[in-house]
Amino acid sequence: MRFSRRAAVAVVGVAALLTATACGSSGDSGGGTGSKKVEVFTWWADGGEKAGLDGLVAQFAKDCPGQTFENGAVAGGAGANAKQVLASRLQQNQPPDTFQAHAGAELLDYINAGQVQDLSADYDTWGLKTAFPQGLIDNLTVDGKIYSVPANIHRANVVWTNKKVLSDAGITDDPKDLAGFIADLDKLKAKGIKSPLAIGKDWTQLMLFESVLITDLGADQFTGLWKGTTDWTSAPVTKAITDFKQLLTYTNTDRDALDWTDAEKLVMDGKAGYQLMGDWEAADLDAKNFTGYGYFTFPGNGATYQWLADSFVLPKGANNADGTKCWLKTVGSADGQKAFNTKKGSIPARTDASPADYPKYQQAAMADWKTEKQVPSCAHGSACSQGWQGAANSALGAFSTNQDVAGLQKALAAAAQQFAKK
Ligand code: GAL
């Protein structure tokens, strides 16, 4: 028997079985070999995220007649809920047919635990080794084997704006550095915008903090934090925490109860002028028909592209390996990447895409991706393992309440001590 998905239902309230193709086989219980259902486990349940997934599903329906898509999405930004449900399913040996995993350290967790299968031979068959940039292939490879197919590249260090809110306060230019950003936040406050910088709970605070770290440490030292070569107890980290603390004074006080979409709503409703968030926000604002937005790289980050990549795996013990392989082939294909990324706010992981097919934001991101310095993200698994991410999220969550600079630095240094690879 397949996993009942009761846990998923409890989280999202609904777990619909969606048929992706008219050719899909019916009457299949999904159990055992011979299944024609591909359960795709993500946290893309709504808005731009769902629109991206729908694009991929439509392509899958064309590419994989006879197979049906089963939506295993568990709502909650950054997989806050999904990852828990997934962990318990993997532990019980009841994996979905495929699941979303971030390239880099997060994927390594699943590889080290022996939970995902080697796809190297499929990479050869599908011609994927040359389709993706070498750096990304390196992030997916362990001991010469490749374990997942990347769907995209997202950018994390972007500030999204409500243009009208800014222009009403006389703000017409993007801030060049942190001091300029704070001056603009003050202008918004003076105009009666009480919480001009919208933010949500722990992982969204970690994202803002990581952006401040990039500004205060520079790209190389920032990357070194996750490689064990930059000291978490150093003075620049103290400065970053102090700057971050100052930024929090401009944020909504109910932040710890909000997901990223709730904070995004504050921007859309004109209650805030800014939000730091990954570029899934472009897709989500588009999906919600909010046209009055602008964006810029977090002030002081310079030409630094903080990247993360969603990739899909073939778990050990998947019920429908053939159908899953067809899904993975679609994910890695030029058509699949276009169907997905034009709606998801991300850029294709493949290097052969044509920018003209993409919305304006992604066209700019595609150009930046080629020229800017790339740094990974802990909040989205490219920089740190899930254990480290959990420790960082809870340290940020505690700081949101206690504002203890030394305490946060100590907790982050202890997490690095525990999780950084020696
Ligand atoms: C990230 C994921 C993105 C987006 C975001 C917000 O971890 O890579 O695709 O879904 O979470 O939920």
What's the arrangement of strands in the largest beta sheet?
2-1-3-13-6
Are any ligands bound, and if so which? beta-D-galactopyranose
- For this structure, the CATH topology of the largest domain is D-Maltodextrin-Binding Protein, domain 2
Named CATH architecture of the largest domain: 3-Layer(aba) Sandwich
Number of strands: 14
Account of the 3D structure:
This protein is an alpha/beta fold and 422 residues long. It has helices at residues 6-12, 47-63, 82-91, 105-112, 120-126, 134-140, 163-168, 178-190, 202-217, 219-227, 235-248, 260-268, 280-287, 321-332, 334-344, 360-371, 386-402, 405-419; strands at residues 37-41, 68-71, 98-102, 141-142, 145-146, 149-150, 154-155, 158-162, 197-198, 274-277, 293-297, 304-308, 310-312, 373-376. Strand 1 (37-41), helix 2 (47-63) and strand 2 form a beta-alpha-beta unit. Helix 2 (47-63) crosses helix 14 (321-332), helix 11 packs across helix 18 (405-419) and helix 14 (321-332) crosses helix 15. The longest helix has 17 residues, at 47-63. Residues 1-32 have low confidence and may be disordered. Residues 43-44, 49, 77-79, 102, 154, 278, 280, 308, 310, 380 line the site of beta-D-galactopyranose (GAL).
Summed up:
The chain contains 18 helices and 14 strands. The chain is α/β, with parallel strands linked by helices and 422 residues long. It has 3 domains: 37-154 and 309-375, D-Maltodextrin-Binding Protein, domain 2 (3-Layer(aba) Sandwich); 158-197 and 261-294, D-Maltodextrin-Binding Protein, domain 2, CATH 3.40.190.10; 201-251 and 385-422, Periplasmic binding protein-like II (D-Maltodextrin-Binding Protein, domain 2, 3-Layer(aba) Sandwich), CATH 3.40.190.
